Protein backbone atom coordinates (compact mmCIF):
# COMPACT_ATOMS: atom_id res chain seq x y z
CA UNK A 1 0.00 0.00 0.00
CA UNK A 2 1.40 3.41 -0.98
CA UNK A 3 2.08 6.23 1.46
CA UNK A 4 -0.68 8.27 -0.19
CA UNK A 5 -3.19 5.47 0.35
CA UNK A 6 -2.21 5.11 3.99
CA UNK A 7 -2.43 8.89 4.45
CA UNK A 8 -5.87 8.96 2.86
CA UNK A 9 -7.14 6.22 5.15
CA UNK A 10 -5.62 7.99 8.15
CA UNK A 11 -7.06 11.40 7.21
CA UNK A 12 -10.58 10.33 6.24
CA UNK A 13 -10.82 7.42 8.66
CA UNK A 14 -9.78 9.42 11.73
CA UNK A 15 -12.23 12.17 10.77
CA UNK A 16 -15.21 9.83 10.61
CA UNK A 17 -14.07 7.98 13.73
CA UNK A 18 -14.05 11.27 15.65
CA UNK A 19 -17.50 12.11 14.29
CA UNK A 20 -18.80 8.73 15.51
CA UNK A 21 -17.36 9.60 18.93
CA UNK A 22 -19.47 12.81 18.77
CA UNK A 23 -16.51 15.16 18.58
CA UNK A 24 -17.60 18.50 16.98
CA UNK A 25 -17.00 18.63 13.23
CA UNK A 26 -14.49 21.50 13.26
CA UNK A 27 -12.41 19.85 15.99
CA UNK A 28 -12.59 16.49 14.17
CA UNK A 29 -11.28 18.12 10.99
CA UNK A 30 -8.47 19.82 12.86
CA UNK A 31 -7.34 16.74 14.80
CA UNK A 32 -7.44 14.44 11.76
CA UNK A 33 -5.45 17.03 9.78
CA UNK A 34 -2.79 17.32 12.51
CA UNK A 35 -2.42 13.54 12.84
CA UNK A 36 -2.07 13.09 9.07
CA UNK A 37 0.37 16.00 8.76
CA UNK A 38 2.58 14.46 11.45
CA UNK A 39 2.44 11.12 9.63
CA UNK A 40 3.42 12.77 6.34
CA UNK A 41 6.06 14.89 8.12
CA UNK A 42 4.41 18.06 6.85
CA UNK A 43 5.25 21.10 8.94
CA UNK A 44 2.38 22.13 11.20
CA UNK A 45 3.27 25.72 10.35
CA UNK A 46 2.15 25.05 6.77
CA UNK A 47 -1.10 23.60 8.09
CA UNK A 48 -1.74 26.63 10.31
CA UNK A 49 -1.00 28.98 7.41
CA UNK A 50 -3.55 27.06 5.36
CA UNK A 51 -6.15 27.52 8.10
CA UNK A 52 -5.58 31.28 8.15
CA UNK A 53 -5.63 31.46 4.36
CA UNK A 54 -9.00 29.73 4.34
CA UNK A 55 -10.67 32.67 6.11
CA UNK A 56 -8.53 35.44 4.59
CA UNK A 57 -11.08 36.52 1.98
CA UNK A 58 -12.96 39.81 1.55
CA UNK A 59 -15.95 38.01 0.00
CA UNK A 60 -16.12 35.74 3.05
CA UNK A 61 -16.88 38.78 5.22
CA UNK A 62 -20.40 38.56 3.84
CA UNK A 63 -21.03 35.37 5.83
CA UNK A 64 -20.84 37.00 9.30
CA UNK A 65 -23.03 39.87 8.13
CA UNK A 66 -25.67 37.50 6.73
CA UNK A 67 -25.65 35.51 9.98
CA UNK A 68 -26.09 38.62 12.15
CA UNK A 69 -28.81 40.03 9.86
CA UNK A 70 -30.65 36.72 10.14
CA UNK A 71 -30.25 36.83 13.93
CA UNK A 72 -31.89 40.26 14.06
CA UNK A 73 -34.75 39.28 11.79
CA UNK A 74 -35.28 36.00 13.62
CA UNK A 75 -35.65 37.79 16.96
CA UNK A 76 -37.25 40.96 15.63
CA UNK A 77 -40.81 39.73 15.23
CA UNK A 78 -40.55 38.90 11.56
CA UNK A 79 -41.82 35.33 11.92
CA UNK A 80 -45.28 36.16 13.22
CA UNK A 81 -45.68 38.99 10.69
CA UNK A 82 -44.85 36.70 7.79
CA UNK A 83 -47.32 34.14 9.11
CA UNK A 84 -49.95 36.87 9.25
CA UNK A 85 -49.07 37.96 5.70
CA UNK A 86 -49.44 34.41 4.36
CA UNK A 87 -52.73 33.93 6.22
CA UNK A 88 -54.13 36.98 4.45
CA UNK A 89 -53.22 35.39 1.10
CA UNK A 90 -54.27 31.75 1.56
CA UNK A 91 -55.39 31.20 5.13
CA UNK A 92 -59.08 30.97 4.22
CA UNK A 93 -58.58 27.98 1.88
CA UNK A 94 -58.99 24.33 2.91
CA UNK A 95 -55.64 23.34 4.35
CA UNK A 96 -54.75 27.01 4.52
CA UNK A 97 -52.24 26.63 7.34
CA UNK A 98 -50.29 24.11 5.27
CA UNK A 99 -50.12 26.69 2.47
CA UNK A 100 -49.13 29.33 5.01
CA UNK A 101 -46.29 27.04 6.12
CA UNK A 102 -44.99 26.73 2.55
CA UNK A 103 -45.27 30.44 1.72
CA UNK A 104 -43.74 31.73 4.95
CA UNK A 105 -40.81 29.32 4.57
CA UNK A 106 -40.24 30.67 1.05
CA UNK A 107 -40.16 34.27 2.28
CA UNK A 108 -38.35 33.67 5.56
CA UNK A 109 -35.78 31.48 3.83
CA UNK A 110 -34.89 34.50 1.70
CA UNK A 111 -34.14 36.40 4.90
CA UNK A 112 -32.49 33.87 7.18
CA UNK A 113 -30.70 31.66 4.64
CA UNK A 114 -30.83 28.85 7.19
CA UNK A 115 -33.06 25.76 7.30
CA UNK A 116 -32.59 25.42 11.07
CA UNK A 117 -33.47 29.10 11.63
CA UNK A 118 -36.55 28.63 9.45
CA UNK A 119 -37.76 25.69 11.55
CA UNK A 120 -36.84 27.30 14.87
CA UNK A 121 -38.62 30.58 14.12
CA UNK A 122 -41.59 29.48 12.02
CA UNK A 123 -42.02 25.95 13.31
CA UNK A 124 -42.40 27.19 16.87
CA UNK A 125 -45.42 29.22 15.68
CA UNK A 126 -46.95 27.05 12.97
CA UNK A 127 -46.64 23.49 14.33
CA UNK A 128 -48.68 24.22 17.51
CA UNK A 129 -51.11 26.34 15.44
CA UNK A 130 -51.65 23.50 12.94
CA UNK A 131 -52.17 20.96 15.74
CA UNK A 132 -54.77 23.22 17.39
CA UNK A 133 -56.63 23.57 14.08
CA UNK A 134 -56.93 19.80 13.64
CA UNK A 135 -53.95 18.98 11.40
CA UNK A 136 -52.19 15.67 12.02
CA UNK A 137 -49.13 16.10 14.18
CA UNK A 138 -46.94 14.10 11.79
CA UNK A 139 -48.00 16.14 8.75
CA UNK A 140 -47.41 19.40 10.62
CA UNK A 141 -43.83 18.38 11.46
CA UNK A 142 -43.14 16.89 8.02
CA UNK A 143 -44.28 19.91 5.99
CA UNK A 144 -42.36 22.27 8.30
CA UNK A 145 -39.22 20.18 7.87
CA UNK A 146 -39.43 19.81 4.10
CA UNK A 147 -40.26 23.45 3.35
CA UNK A 148 -37.17 24.55 5.29
CA UNK A 149 -34.97 23.25 2.42
CA UNK A 150 -36.04 26.31 0.42
CA UNK A 151 -33.87 28.39 2.76
CA UNK A 152 -30.78 26.80 1.22
CA UNK A 153 -31.78 27.76 -2.33
CA UNK A 154 -33.49 31.14 -2.03
CA UNK A 155 -31.10 34.07 -1.56
CA UNK A 156 -29.40 35.21 0.54
CA UNK A 157 -27.94 31.84 1.55
CA UNK A 158 -24.54 32.18 3.20
CA UNK A 159 -23.77 28.65 2.02
CA UNK A 160 -23.84 29.97 -1.54
CA UNK A 161 -21.18 32.51 -0.56
CA UNK A 162 -19.01 29.68 0.75
CA UNK A 163 -19.50 27.60 -2.40
CA UNK A 164 -18.75 30.58 -4.67
CA UNK A 165 -15.48 31.15 -2.81
CA UNK A 166 -14.39 27.50 -2.82
CA UNK A 167 -15.35 27.06 -6.48
CA UNK A 168 -12.77 29.62 -7.53
CA UNK A 169 -14.43 32.97 -6.97
CA UNK A 170 -17.76 32.59 -8.76
CA UNK A 171 -20.15 35.55 -8.80
CA UNK A 172 -22.24 35.45 -5.62
CA UNK A 173 -24.93 37.50 -7.34
CA UNK A 174 -25.24 34.88 -10.09
CA UNK A 175 -25.40 32.13 -7.47
CA UNK A 176 -28.21 33.96 -5.68
CA UNK A 177 -30.20 34.38 -8.89
CA UNK A 178 -29.53 30.77 -9.92
CA UNK A 179 -31.13 29.40 -6.75
CA UNK A 180 -34.30 31.50 -7.00
CA UNK A 181 -36.31 29.50 -9.57
CA UNK A 182 -35.37 26.05 -8.16
CA UNK A 183 -36.31 27.31 -4.69
CA UNK A 184 -39.67 28.56 -5.94
CA UNK A 185 -40.23 25.30 -7.84
CA UNK A 186 -39.67 23.34 -4.63
CA UNK A 187 -42.14 25.59 -2.81
CA UNK A 188 -44.78 25.16 -5.55
CA UNK A 189 -44.39 21.37 -5.54
CA UNK A 190 -44.79 21.24 -1.76
CA UNK A 191 -47.85 23.51 -2.06
CA UNK A 192 -49.34 21.07 -4.57
CA UNK A 193 -48.63 18.13 -2.26
CA UNK A 194 -50.22 20.02 0.65
CA UNK A 195 -53.32 20.70 -1.46
CA UNK A 196 -53.75 16.99 -2.25
CA UNK A 197 -53.26 15.91 1.38
CA UNK A 198 -55.57 18.66 2.68
CA UNK A 199 -58.38 17.54 0.39
CA UNK A 200 -57.90 13.87 1.23
CA UNK A 201 -57.82 14.42 4.99
CA UNK A 202 -60.44 17.21 5.01
CA UNK A 203 -58.24 19.69 6.83
CA UNK A 204 -60.12 22.83 7.90
CA UNK A 205 -60.26 26.18 6.15
CA UNK A 206 -59.38 29.29 8.10
CA UNK A 207 -61.41 32.45 8.63
CA UNK A 208 -61.06 35.07 5.92
CA UNK A 209 -59.24 38.18 7.14
CA UNK A 210 -61.29 41.40 6.72
CA UNK A 211 -60.02 43.64 3.91
CA UNK A 212 -58.88 46.59 6.04
CA UNK A 213 -57.18 44.35 8.57
CA UNK A 214 -55.52 42.46 5.72
CA UNK A 215 -54.13 45.69 4.26
CA UNK A 216 -52.69 46.62 7.65
CA UNK A 217 -51.07 43.18 8.06
CA UNK A 218 -49.59 43.25 4.56
CA UNK A 219 -48.23 46.77 5.04
CA UNK A 220 -46.65 45.82 8.36
CA UNK A 221 -44.99 42.74 6.85
CA UNK A 222 -43.47 44.61 3.87
CA UNK A 223 -40.71 45.93 6.11
CA UNK A 224 -39.54 42.35 6.51
CA UNK A 225 -38.88 41.97 2.78
CA UNK A 226 -36.50 44.91 2.62
CA UNK A 227 -33.52 42.76 3.61
CA UNK A 228 -33.84 40.55 0.54
CA UNK A 229 -34.41 43.59 -1.70
CA UNK A 230 -31.24 45.28 -0.44
CA UNK A 231 -29.12 42.21 -1.08
CA UNK A 232 -30.52 41.22 -4.47
CA UNK A 233 -30.69 44.72 -5.91
CA UNK A 234 -27.28 45.69 -4.56
CA UNK A 235 -25.43 42.57 -5.71
CA UNK A 236 -27.21 41.89 -9.00
CA UNK A 237 -27.02 45.46 -10.27
CA UNK A 238 -23.39 45.91 -9.27
CA UNK A 239 -24.17 48.91 -7.06
CA UNK A 240 -22.26 47.25 -4.23
CA UNK A 241 -20.40 44.04 -3.51
CA UNK A 242 -21.98 41.13 -1.70
CA UNK A 243 -20.07 42.06 1.46
CA UNK A 244 -21.24 45.67 1.32
CA UNK A 245 -24.85 44.65 0.68
CA UNK A 246 -24.68 42.19 3.58
CA UNK A 247 -23.41 44.97 5.86
CA UNK A 248 -26.29 47.21 4.73
CA UNK A 249 -28.68 44.35 5.44
CA UNK A 250 -27.42 44.20 9.04
CA UNK A 251 -28.05 47.93 9.52
CA UNK A 252 -31.51 47.65 7.97
CA UNK A 253 -32.43 44.55 10.00
CA UNK A 254 -31.29 46.27 13.18
CA UNK A 255 -33.39 49.39 12.45
CA UNK A 256 -36.49 47.33 11.58
CA UNK A 257 -36.15 45.14 14.68
CA UNK A 258 -35.41 48.00 17.10
CA UNK A 259 -37.24 51.03 15.68
CA UNK A 260 -40.08 49.75 13.46
CA UNK A 261 -41.22 46.50 15.09
CA UNK A 262 -39.71 47.31 18.52
CA UNK A 263 -39.28 43.61 19.23
CA UNK A 264 -35.59 44.01 20.17
CA UNK A 265 -35.14 46.59 22.96
CA UNK A 266 -31.88 48.53 23.04
CA UNK A 267 -30.93 46.61 26.17
CA UNK A 268 -30.99 43.33 24.22
CA UNK A 269 -28.85 44.46 21.29
CA UNK A 270 -25.75 42.98 22.89
CA UNK A 271 -27.57 39.67 23.33
CA UNK A 272 -28.43 39.56 19.61
CA UNK A 273 -24.85 40.35 18.63
CA UNK A 274 -23.48 37.84 21.13
CA UNK A 275 -25.64 35.04 19.76
CA UNK A 276 -24.74 36.03 16.22
CA UNK A 277 -21.02 36.10 16.95
CA UNK A 278 -21.21 32.64 18.53
CA UNK A 279 -22.55 31.31 15.23
CA UNK A 280 -19.96 33.32 13.28
CA UNK A 281 -17.13 31.89 15.40
CA UNK A 282 -18.34 28.34 14.79
CA UNK A 283 -18.64 28.92 11.04
CA UNK A 284 -15.22 30.56 10.72
CA UNK A 285 -13.55 27.82 12.76
CA UNK A 286 -15.24 25.27 10.51
CA UNK A 287 -14.03 27.05 7.35
CA UNK A 288 -10.44 27.30 8.59
CA UNK A 289 -10.38 23.65 9.72
CA UNK A 290 -11.88 22.52 6.40
CA UNK A 291 -9.24 24.51 4.53
CA UNK A 292 -6.46 22.57 6.25
CA UNK A 293 -8.26 19.28 5.66
CA UNK A 294 -8.83 20.17 1.99
CA UNK A 295 -5.20 21.16 1.54
CA UNK A 296 -4.10 17.75 2.80
CA UNK A 297 -6.57 16.02 0.47
CA UNK A 298 -5.00 17.89 -2.45
CA UNK A 299 -1.48 17.17 -1.15
CA UNK A 300 -2.09 13.41 -1.24
CA UNK A 301 -3.87 13.74 -4.62
CA UNK A 302 -7.30 12.48 -3.50
CA UNK A 303 -9.24 14.75 -5.93
CA UNK A 304 -7.33 13.36 -8.93
CA UNK A 305 -7.84 9.75 -7.79
CA UNK A 306 -11.59 10.23 -7.22
CA UNK A 307 -11.99 12.10 -10.51
CA UNK A 308 -10.16 9.43 -12.52
CA UNK A 309 -12.13 6.64 -10.83
CA UNK A 310 -15.55 8.17 -11.53
CA UNK A 311 -14.75 9.29 -15.08
CA UNK A 312 -13.28 5.90 -15.99
CA UNK A 313 -16.20 3.96 -14.49
CA UNK A 314 -18.96 6.21 -15.85
CA UNK A 315 -19.10 6.56 -19.62
CA UNK A 316 -21.71 9.29 -20.04
CA UNK A 317 -22.78 12.59 -18.52
CA UNK A 318 -25.89 10.89 -17.12
CA UNK A 319 -23.98 8.23 -15.20
CA UNK A 320 -21.38 10.73 -13.96
CA UNK A 321 -24.05 13.09 -12.61
CA UNK A 322 -25.99 10.18 -11.14
CA UNK A 323 -22.86 9.12 -9.26
CA UNK A 324 -22.20 12.69 -8.04
CA UNK A 325 -25.77 13.11 -6.82
CA UNK A 326 -25.65 9.82 -4.93
CA UNK A 327 -22.34 10.81 -3.33
CA UNK A 328 -23.74 14.20 -2.27
CA UNK A 329 -26.94 12.70 -0.88
CA UNK A 330 -24.95 10.17 1.18
CA UNK A 331 -22.54 12.84 2.39
CA UNK A 332 -25.48 15.04 3.35
CA UNK A 333 -26.88 12.22 5.47
CA UNK A 334 -23.71 11.79 7.52
CA UNK A 335 -22.13 15.24 7.73
CA UNK A 336 -23.12 18.87 8.08
CA UNK A 337 -23.46 21.11 5.04
CA UNK A 338 -20.57 23.50 5.66
CA UNK A 339 -17.67 21.04 5.73
CA UNK A 340 -19.04 19.14 2.72
CA UNK A 341 -19.11 22.33 0.64
CA UNK A 342 -15.56 23.16 1.68
CA UNK A 343 -14.10 19.68 1.25
CA UNK A 344 -16.15 18.08 -1.53
CA UNK A 345 -16.37 21.03 -3.92
CA UNK A 346 -12.69 20.91 -4.99
CA UNK A 347 -13.04 17.15 -5.48
CA UNK A 348 -16.40 16.93 -7.29
CA UNK A 349 -16.61 20.21 -9.23
CA UNK A 350 -13.80 19.30 -11.69
CA UNK A 351 -15.63 16.04 -12.44
CA UNK A 352 -18.86 17.90 -13.19
CA UNK A 353 -17.02 20.41 -15.37
CA UNK A 354 -15.37 17.56 -17.26
CA UNK A 355 -18.80 16.42 -18.48
CA UNK A 356 -19.95 19.93 -19.37
CA UNK A 357 -21.86 21.01 -16.27
CA UNK A 358 -21.61 24.74 -15.53
CA UNK A 359 -20.12 25.43 -12.06
CA UNK A 360 -23.11 27.57 -11.06
CA UNK A 361 -25.49 24.80 -12.13
CA UNK A 362 -23.47 22.28 -10.14
CA UNK A 363 -23.52 24.62 -7.15
CA UNK A 364 -27.31 24.59 -7.07
CA UNK A 365 -27.28 20.79 -7.46
CA UNK A 366 -24.98 20.63 -4.43
CA UNK A 367 -27.19 23.00 -2.43
CA UNK A 368 -30.34 20.97 -3.06
CA UNK A 369 -28.66 17.62 -2.34
CA UNK A 370 -27.14 18.87 0.89
CA UNK A 371 -30.34 20.68 1.84
CA UNK A 372 -32.18 17.37 1.59
CA UNK A 373 -29.38 15.90 3.71
CA UNK A 374 -30.22 18.38 6.48
CA UNK A 375 -33.63 16.71 6.76
CA UNK A 376 -32.38 13.11 6.88
CA UNK A 377 -30.92 10.92 9.64
CA UNK A 378 -28.52 10.32 11.22
CA UNK A 379 -27.15 13.86 11.62
CA UNK A 380 -29.63 16.17 9.86
CA UNK A 381 -29.65 19.39 11.88
CA UNK A 382 -33.02 20.46 10.47
CA UNK A 383 -34.50 17.05 11.32
CA UNK A 384 -33.36 17.37 14.94
CA UNK A 385 -34.86 20.88 15.15
CA UNK A 386 -38.23 19.84 13.68
CA UNK A 387 -38.53 16.74 15.89
CA UNK A 388 -37.65 18.78 18.97
CA UNK A 389 -40.09 21.62 18.26
CA UNK A 390 -42.86 19.20 17.21
CA UNK A 391 -42.25 17.00 20.28
CA UNK A 392 -42.04 13.83 18.19
CA UNK A 393 -39.32 11.19 17.90
CA UNK A 394 -36.75 11.30 15.09
CA UNK A 395 -38.18 8.12 13.56
CA UNK A 396 -41.69 9.51 13.57
CA UNK A 397 -40.52 12.76 11.95
CA UNK A 398 -38.75 10.78 9.21
CA UNK A 399 -41.81 8.62 8.53
CA UNK A 400 -43.97 11.73 8.33
CA UNK A 401 -41.61 13.28 5.78
CA UNK A 402 -41.23 10.21 3.51
CA UNK A 403 -43.74 11.39 0.84
CA UNK A 404 -42.13 14.84 0.89
CA UNK A 405 -38.69 13.30 0.31
CA UNK A 406 -40.12 12.01 -2.98
CA UNK A 407 -41.24 15.54 -3.87
CA UNK A 408 -37.80 16.94 -3.07
CA UNK A 409 -36.08 14.21 -5.10
CA UNK A 410 -38.38 14.97 -8.05
CA UNK A 411 -37.30 18.61 -7.93
CA UNK A 412 -33.68 17.46 -7.70
CA UNK A 413 -34.14 15.45 -10.93
CA UNK A 414 -35.63 18.50 -12.67
CA UNK A 415 -32.74 20.71 -11.52
CA UNK A 416 -30.25 18.16 -12.85
CA UNK A 417 -31.81 17.71 -16.28
CA UNK A 418 -32.90 21.33 -16.84
CA UNK A 419 -29.84 23.61 -16.51
CA UNK A 420 -31.79 26.49 -18.08
CA UNK A 421 -34.02 26.55 -15.01
CA UNK A 422 -30.92 27.39 -12.98
CA UNK A 423 -29.04 29.60 -15.45
CA UNK A 424 -31.94 31.57 -16.95
CA UNK A 425 -32.10 34.41 -14.40
CA UNK A 426 -28.30 34.92 -14.08
CA UNK A 427 -28.03 35.18 -17.87
CA UNK A 428 -31.09 37.42 -18.19
CA UNK A 429 -30.15 39.90 -15.47
CA UNK A 430 -26.34 39.74 -15.38
CA UNK A 431 -25.35 38.76 -18.94
CA UNK A 432 -23.78 35.69 -20.51
CA UNK A 433 -21.46 33.54 -18.45
Task: Describe the structure using short key phrases.
433 residues; mainly alpha; 22 helices; 80% helix; globular
Quick one: how many beta strands? 0
Instruction: Report the average pLDDT across residues.
Output: 84
Strand content: under 5%
Q: In angstroms, what separates the terminal alpha carbons?
A: 44 Å
Helix content: over 70%
Helix vs. strand class: mainly alpha
- The total count of helices amounts to 22
Detailed description of the structure:
This protein has 433 residues and is mostly helical. It has one domain (3-430). Helices cover 80% and strands 0% of the residues. The protein has 22 helices and no strands. Helix 6 packs antiparallel against helix 11 (172-201), helix 7 packs antiparallel against helix 8 (137-147) and helix 17 packs parallel to helix 19. 49% of the residues are buried. The model has no long low-confidence stretch (mean pLDDT 84).
Amino acid sequence: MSVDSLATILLVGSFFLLLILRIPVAISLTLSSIVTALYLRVSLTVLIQGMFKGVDSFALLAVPFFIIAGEFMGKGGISKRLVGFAKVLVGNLRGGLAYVNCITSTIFGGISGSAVADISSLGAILIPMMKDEGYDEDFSVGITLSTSVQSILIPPSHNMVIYAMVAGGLSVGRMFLAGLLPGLLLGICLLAYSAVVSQQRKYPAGIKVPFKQGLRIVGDSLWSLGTVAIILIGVCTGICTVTESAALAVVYACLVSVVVYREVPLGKLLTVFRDGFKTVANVMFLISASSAFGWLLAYIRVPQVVSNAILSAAHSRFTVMLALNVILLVLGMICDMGPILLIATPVLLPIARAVGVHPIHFGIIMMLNLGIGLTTPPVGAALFAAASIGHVSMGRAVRATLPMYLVMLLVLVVVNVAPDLVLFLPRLLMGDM
